[in-house]
Specification:
By secondary structure, the protein is an alpha/beta fold. 40% of the residues lie in helices and 21% in strands. It contains 7 helices and 6 strands, in the order H-H-H-H-H-E-E-E-E-H-E-H-E. Strands 1, 2, 3, 4, 5 and 6 form a 6-stranded mixed sheet that branches. Helix 7 links the parallel strand 5 and strand 6. The longest helix is centred in the middle third of the chain and has 21 residues. It is globular and about 60 Å long.
């Protein structure tokens, strides 16, 4: 994406097709709590958030670059965040899970996941610069000017080096890792046939390993070097 020229011409068709697919599949799960006299539609809000997600940007800057791409009626980041704050974290999690489910079912309708699949479980950290007392914030190594982040544990189908995310859960500082791993794999077992599960060495601990064995899945994980 070039702020001065918009999306490059050779990818514009694919971008438009992708955005239409997102609108048809995901938008119905993410309706805002709007008053009848609200200036902006659900699509106005979600178009900006989709753009920000695709360009890996924050909401504020995403609004600014989206105006360059599509001048006109574009809500400000303040307005968008005001409407998002009307939801509880539980509501947002439920709606995101509905969206994941719709995406997964769409992919399955195209013939994906017919055979056994390899899964990867990993953590994704999003840098956080706000109130450090937020219950969902975790500390860690300094990255992009901060020691704090939102952390998600993700479940991905791995195909030819690509990843298809089928579930993501937030992990706060008090969350149980093994319970989250169990929740992800029980979700996967209801939808796909698992061949192998791949995890990085961050999961190398007795409780998580015992959980994997109890779930009767074949897994591969680097061991942490120690005297044993």
């Amino acid at each position: 994406y070039d702020p001065n020229k918009g999306f490059r011409s050779q990818t514009a068709g694919n971008i438009r097709s992708f955005c239409r697919l997102v609108k048809d599949t995901v938008y119905p799960c993410l309706r805002m709590k709007r008053n009848k006299n609200t200036v902006y539609s659900d699509e106005d809000f979600l178009d900006v958030l989709t753009h920000a997600a695709m360009t890996h940007d924050f909401t504020h800057n995403g609004c600014e670059t989206f105006r360059l791409y599509r001048p006109g009626k574009v809500p400000t980041s303040t307005v968008i965040l005001h409407h998002i704050r009307k939801f509880s974290s539980e509501e947002l999690l439920q709606r995101s899970e509905e969206a994941f489910e719709r995406i997964f079912n769409l992919a399955k309708s195209y013939g994906l996941f017919k055979n056994s699949v390899d899964l990867a479980i990993d953590y994704t950290d999003l840098p956080y610069y706000g109130d450090k007392t937020d219950s969902m914030i975790v500390g860690g190594k300094k990255h992009k000017g901060t020691n704090f982040s939102y952390r998600f544990i993700t479940l991905n189908v791995v195909v030819d080096g690509l990843r298809f995310t089928i579930k993501a859960l937030p992990r706060g500082p008090l969350a149980s890792e093994q319970k989250l791993v169990r929740q992800l794999l029980e979700y996967a077992k209801e939808r796909v046939t698992i061949r192998y599960v791949f995890l990085d060495r961050g999961f190398f601990n007795c409780k998580t390993i015992n959980e994997l064995k109890d779930l009767d899945v074949k897994f591969l994980m680097p061991a942490v070097a120690n005297t044993r």
